[in-house]
Amino acid sequence: MKILVINTGSSSIKYQLFDMEHEKALAIGIAEKIGEVTGRLTHKVPVDDGMPRKRVMDGPIKDHREGMNRISALLVDQVLGVIRDKSEIAAVGHRVVHGGEAFQAPTIINEAVIAEIKKNTPLAPLHNPPNLVGIEVARAIFPGIPQVAVFDTAFHHTMPRHAYLYALPYDLYQKEGVRRYGFHGTSHAYVSERAAEHLGKGLDSLNMITIHLGNGASIAAIEKGRCIDTSMGMTPLEGLVMGTRAGDLDPALPFFLSRHLKMNLDQIDGLLNKQSGLKGICGTNDMREVLERRKSGDDRAEAALDIYTYRIKKYIGAYIAVLGIVDAIVFTGGIGENAPIVRELSCHGLTGFGISIDREKNNAVSYDIREISAADSNIKVLVVPTNEELKIAQETKKVVTF
Ligand code: ADP
């Protein structure tokens, strides 16, 4: 069975075609800068034990429909194609950021589902509209092929009321859906499953803290496979320090920015979402650059890393309290997988909680799932490479073969 996974942003379409018999990506690509003159389409065909075959096409991509049409043509291309006909695709899985309270599981897309996703747009004004565009063009280009929505929020729907409700007038929850939803659910779910497999235990017998550190970052408390708390909130702004997002703040800060600095709402939104986090503190949102600058003595880069890892440590402590017993802590995402110093500082001083990292194992370069805790650490610490696209394909397969 072949499943196409699509992740549509406001100016991009990321895609992967999976062979589900071997859970292997047959083709991977991205159409970027859609609608700009400098558009680019990159299509890669992974090759076992070798460099992927690749084509990069520069030039404008008028809109998402043209992007998807070109992707569809590449999949059947004489040279770089991986299928003979698009009818070989059994289903298309779409990443949809916000499922609100309505969607607690992957769902086959029909008109009613589209209408419900649209209803959630005020909760995710930047994400749900492009996701809907992706669904619309994929339905037109792959007619008759089932389309499935896989929601970033769905994994977190098991949070109890005391974790998801804010202490605000209750009407705001009942009438407007104001509450914690959480994001990165596909990644938290995937890495917790892989970690349980690695530990040779059932997910339902383990308590874990999963830490996704990419450009966005979030942490989740998972009790026997069910999420019971997570750091992102109604929007992805809450919680950990991120590349360009501030994370947790004094909620009165926007009043100060407005009253004292006369900033309007859009400016405050931009400041907290795009100009803050690592970038706000030291000028770059790229962790590799932060680490390089820190090494060469840059004090701001040092501050950025300290603030970033201190926040993670605080959440680890909080989620140990929330879970009571913790079996494993899992790091994932571009930073969680590749930055040993971030893992080390985030767990530094937690031996009293039964967490200690083996320096050598932590510093070893690897792209596989691995344990980095010391032999005497009560809580295992793991690095688990995430694969959100594969998880979307797996969920899509479950829905269409049910
Ligand atoms: P996204 O959330 O966009 O999927 P990623 O999960 O790819 O992002 O994470 C991007 C982050 O990972 C960037 O801050 C990047 O600097 C960081 N990163 C990638 N490789 C390394 C590395 N070798 N060392 C430190 N940070 C890294």
TrEMBL record:
Pfam families: Acetate_kinase. The gene is ackA. It is an enzyme of class 2 (transferase). Its cofactor is Mg(2+); Mn(2+). This is Acetate kinase. Substrate binds at residue 95. The record marks 184, 245 as: Transition state stabilizer. The keyword Metal-binding applies. Keywords: ATP-binding, Cytoplasm, Kinase, Magnesium, Metal-binding, Nucleotide-binding, Transferase. Catalyzes the formation of acetyl phosphate from acetate and ATP. Can also catalyze the reverse reaction. It catalyses: acetate + ATP = acetyl phosphate + ADP. The active site is at 152 (proton donor/acceptor). Mg(2+) binds at residues 7, 388. One of its GO terms (molecular function) is ATP binding. It is found in: Cytoplasm. ATP binds at residues 14, 212-216, 286-288, 334-338. Its main location: cytoplasm. It comes from the Bacteria. NCBIfam families: ackA (TIGR00016). One of its GO terms (cellular component) is cytoplasm. The keyword Manganese does not apply. Its EC number is 2.7.2.1. GO terms for biological process: acetate metabolic process; acetyl-CoA biosynthetic process. Mg(2+). Can also accept Mn(2+).
